[in-house]
Design brief:
Layout (H helix, E strand, L loop, with lengths): L8 H11 L7 E4 L9 H16 L3 E6 L9 H13 L9 E2 L4 H13 L3 E4 L3 H8 L16 H12 L9 E4 L14 E5 L13 E3 L1 H12 L3 E5 L6 H10 L7 E5 L11 H9 L14 H7 L3 H11 L10 H15 L2 E2 L1 E2 L2 E6 L8 E6 L9 E6 L2 E5 L3 E2 L9 E2 L3 E4 L4 E9 L5 E9 L16 E2 L2 E2 L4 E8 L24 E9 L11 E4 L3 E5 L10 E7 L3 H4 L6
Parallel strand pairs: 1-2, 2-3, 8-9, 10-25, 12-20, 16-17, 18-21, 23-27
Antiparallel strand pairs: 4-5, 5-6, 6-7, 11-24, 12-15, 13-14, 15-22, 18-19, 19-20, 23-24, 25-26, 26-27
The protein binds one RNA strand of 75 nucleotides through helix 5, strand 6, helix 7, helix 12 and strand 21.
RNA sequence: UGGGGUGUCGCCAAGCGGCAAGGCACCAGGUUUUGAUCCUGGCAUUCGGAGGUUCGAAUCCUCCCACCCCAGCCA
């Protein structure tokens, strides 16, 4: 409709279905199970599903696939909704729950029994596994496979009534124990679970399995294109089987795409939960987590995440996406939109010996080099200030473009200064630098023609503020931390978090609001922490560093 | 070894019989009061391999190879 050329195979399919009149309006759904927080992989799925609806003027539902109460909880239901909204997507109507369809699903199960397509099986889990056969050997029919419809109906009703213990009986479809597709070997439709459900309480003691529920949920909601990941491909024949054998008019179709595997990260709910439970990180929303909540706290923006998903495309091949692409997406967004500010992480005091002790000049600087609409801020300039210790050397080669004893450097948005003396402590460590300003160098090069080597950031010692700055890095130091039989916990990067308790920030930063992003010039992009930041005690998280070709080249001249 | 998939530059990805888009990364220059940004240029005679069909193949056919998924009463 709005699009003339499809950008991936799913769009091609939808466009064709629309053009051929097979569907009137495209309806998709994002169907998370509320058993964990959403991660970057889900973000891709969200972009794919909501994106398809958006692109073709259709609808997308948010449906909790809550068929297994044991691992689910309200906390996850809340976080998932917040994350989807934060990413900028709006689901159609109210949030849906698979559990709201439990009665309909049960009625359909009864129908299948009546049609002779399902039976109650008494095999326990162990026996069922043995009867199922292997990948290369056909399974054997359950001895309970030929119970009469009447007996099955009675047994199913009694399962529902709670007459049997967990694991004692299950309801299975009667399909083909010799099918080369394991999913078709009389799959389980209902199992007994005597636990309360977060939505239905104790109404049910039998719960439908994913296979028996998903397609029917789609049908109930009028979903036309049920998009999921590749590992469900083998389930499609079963998905279709249920739709075909049930009195259902709707005809949803399942399509699969390759899931996202970013390098240097893990995206399995089990592993992410383990990182949380083992306190490797502070929680699901720890800024190092690849969760949507974690990325949010880290300073990633919805626009960057969506851009990233668009960059990687949607295909049926599954590979590993270089996290550098995600990093590019966030740098691109923040470079364009984040106000600039100055922060000194490793303070070294500089005393400007030719600058009056009582003088304060309110210098004005743009908040962004190419976005005048972002306005300006005031930078108080004083006799004593801080620069980064890494930006000063008593001596260095010509490639070092910072302050060197006897040489000049430009203080960003302020004067050019020249260093005269390095004051050291008893251990010989430089603790203070004495320098002088070159007059009339704000906006001008020195009159004597001796230009400064470089530009460094600074913060007034008397007017600046102290802040806590958290320097985050990749959580894992291995490109594929959980590939094969690797123990991903062995690859947790020991330097994934470094906290700078007393960084100096320019005074304008006290006005920062939680979740507001900045570029601390020459350092990187930072965000005021969503929870811990306040005007009284500022806390910034490093989202991502600036590209640093100097460091990449080994920092020649250090 | 049964079934289902996938193989195009280091990574992602267009391409659908007419002679290899683009992005990331990387490299080389230029601009720059951020060693950032920005700009310019470079980066697959070759499409998992081998045959075949064709005037012509990454695109069609055959065989082979590699990798991923499936034996939960998880989703």
């Amino acid at each position: 409709m709005e699009k003339t050329s499809a950008s991936n195979f799913l769009e091609t399919i939808v466009a064709d279905d629309l053009a051929a009149g097979r569907v009137e309006t495209v309806v998709t759904r994002f169907p998370p199970e509320p058993n964990g927080y959403l991660h970057i992989g889900h973000a891709k799925s969200i972009c794919v599903n909501f994106g398809l609806a958006e692109t073709f003027g259709g609808r997308c539902n948010l449906r909790f696939d809550d068929t297994n109460p044991e691992k689910e909880s309200q906390e996850y239901i809340d976080s998932i909704q917040a994350d989807v909204r934060w990413l900028g997507f709006r689901w159609d109507g109210e949030v849906r729950f698979a559990s709201a369809y439990f009665q309909q699903l049960y009625d359909w199960a009864v129908y299948l029994v009546e049609q002779g397509h399902a039976y109650v099986c008494d095999l326990n889990a162990q026996q069922a596994r043995e009867y199922r056969g292997t990948l290369t050997e056909a399974g054997k029919n359950s001895p309970y496979r030929d119970r009469s419809v009447a007996e099955n109906l009675d047994l199913l009703a009694r399962m529902k009534a709670g007459e049997f213990a967990e694991g004692e009986k299950v309801l299975r479809a009667r399909i083909d124990m010799a099918s080369p597709n394991m999913n078709m070997r009389d799959p389980i439709l209902y199992r007994i679970r005597k636990v309360a459900h977060h939505q239905t309480g104790t109404d049910w003691v039998i719960y439908p399995t994913y296979d028996f529920a998903h397609g029917q949920e789609d049908a109930i909601e009028g979903v036309t294109h049920s998009v999921c990941t590749l590992e469900f491909e083998d389930h499609r024949p079963l998905y279709d089987w249920f739709i075909e054998h049930l009195p259902i008019a709707a005809r949803p179709r399942q399509y699969e795409f390759g899931r996202l595997n970013p390098s240097y990260t893990v995206t399995s709910k089990r592993k992410l939960k383990q990182l949380v439970d083992d306190a490797v990180v502070s929680g699901w929303d720890d800024p190092r987590m690849p969760t949507v909540a974690g990325m949010r706290r880290r300073g990633y923006t919805p626009a960057a995440i969506r851009k990233f998903c668009q960059m990687i495309g949607t295909t049926r091949s599954d590979g590993v996406v270089d996290v550098a692409m995600l990093e590019f997406a966030i740098r691109e967004d923040l470079n364009e939109n984040a106000p600039r500010a100055m922060c000194v992480l490793n303070p070294l005091k500089v005393v400007l010996t030719n600058y009056p002790d009582s003088q304060v000049e309110d210098l004005v600087a743009a908040r962004h080099p190419s976005r005048p609409d972002l306005g300006e801020r005031v930078l108080p300039f004083t006799r004593e200030l801080y620069i980064d210790a890494d930006d000063f050397r008593e001596e260095a080669n010509k490639k070092y473009k910072r302050l060197v004893l006897g040489k000049r450097v430009r203080l960003r948005n302020a004067y050019v200064i020249e260093a005269h003396e390095a004051v050291k402590d008893s251990a010989g460590k430089v603790v203070e630098v004495h320098a002088s300003i070159i007059p009339d160098t704000i906006g001008n090069d020195p009159a004597d023609g001796v230009k400064p080597k470089g530009v460094i950031q600074w913060v007034s010692a008397s007017r600046g503020r102290q802040a806590t700055v958290r320097l985050y890095d990749r959580l894992f130091d291995h490109e594929a931390p959980d590939k094969g039989d690797r123990d991903f916990l062995q690859h947790v990067n020991p330097d994934s978090l470094r906290v700078v308790e007393r960084a100096w920030i320019e005074p304008s930063l006290v006005q920062a609001l939680p979740e507001q992003g900045f570029q601390f010039e020459r350092e990187g992009y930072f965000v005021a922490d969503r929870y811990d930041h306040s005007e009284e005690s500022p806390v910034f998280n490093r989202t991502i560093g600036l590209r640093d070709s100097w460091a990449e080249q080994g920092g020649e001249g250090q």
